[in-house]
Amino acid sequence: MASRFIRSIEDFSLAYNLGIIAKIKLILHYPLFKLLWLESYGNESSRAISRRLLPLFNGYAIHLRVAAKDGTDGQIRVPFAANDYASFAEVIMAEAYRDDYQNVETVVDLGANTGMASLWFLLRLPRLKKLVAVEPNPRLGSVIRKNVESYARGRFTLEEGCVSDSDQPFANLQLLDDNHRHTRIGFSDHGDVRNMRLAELLDRHGLPTVDLLKMDIEGSEYALLNDAKSLRRCSRIVAEIHGVPEDRGKFVAALGQIGFSVCRPGAVGGPCEMITATRTRSSD
């Protein structure tokens, strides 16, 4: 595990131009990284030990100075709460959203969670001018703002609510895990958070079109297929789609029917997969 850790630090350093101090900080925290690794991949006894110890580090993070693609410097937080670190490792270190986004200037991030995808877009998209993030869980608003603050620079706006195909003005939240990091939503004329359609969100932020729509909304992506007119205002979509492979295949086919060419680069056999879609026509 130690040699793999050192390799990951080197890869991370090359991707984000880490200085020697940042690398030393990471290496000194190797015991914490090992606890996180053991929780996921260790044997039964080591997982039990890590699960007893990791809650002691909820809220703990280290700060690293890194360079963004546009040449600016700032600090990113490396969190050690288990769920938060998993998101950091997947999105920031492994660059799950890596693609050719050199010309992307506008992004809408549906399902911002702790803000890791938004942070990655702020760091890695050199021409980014506006990023609108949407997250229904009010407990995560301060976490998101803290994670992106070094790189927001007037380009970032957080909408605390949800986007759907429903005309109901509010949504009710169902928390799906003990850490309040994942939610499912239902709709009513009163509820926990504000609900809006995608077109309303884009209009509110002066976006007649958007270069990139990111979706990670715990199964609610299927409902947005009913709002094809709004989806056609998006040039590209990157989405984590959930459900059994048959349902995901229907989702991909539906995107094709409304004018998108879809790429499925990942495995299709698990509970979810990442897809990218590019709009090839604007009408049926």
Description:
This protein has helices spanning 2-16, 20-28, 30-41, 44-53, 82-93, 116-124, 141-152, 198-204, 221-224, 228-231, 245-257, and strands at residues 61-67, 73-79, 106-110, 130-134, 156-159, 161-163, 170-175, 183-188, 193-196, 210-215, 234-242, 260-263, 272-279. By secondary structure, it is α/β, with parallel strands linked by helices. The protein folds into two domains: 1-95, no CATH class; 97-284, Rossmann fold (3-Layer(aba) Sandwich), CATH 3.40.50.150. The protein has a seven-stranded mixed sheet with strand order 5-4-3-10-11-13-12, with helices on both faces. The protein has a four-stranded mixed sheet with strand order 6-9-7-8. α5 (82-93) packs parallel to α6. The protein starts with a helix and ends in a 5-residue tail after the last strand.
Mean pLDDT: 88
Supply the number of helical segments.
11
Rg over CA atoms, rounded to whole Å, is 19 Å
Proportion of helical residues: 25-40%
At CATH level 2, the architecture of the largest domain is: 3-Layer(aba) Sandwich
- CATH topology name of the largest domain, in short, is Rossmann fold
The strands making up the biggest β-sheet line up spatially as 5-4-3-10-11-13-12
The N- to C-terminal Cα distance equals 52 Å
Low-confidence stretches: none
Work out the oligomeric state of the chains in this entry.
single chain
CATH class (first level) name of the largest domain: Alpha Beta
Helix/strand order: HHHHEEHEHEHEEEEEHEHHEHEE
Number of individual domains: 2
β-strand number: 13
- Major beta-sheet overview: 7 strands, mixed
CATH superfamily of the largest domain: Vaccinia Virus protein VP39
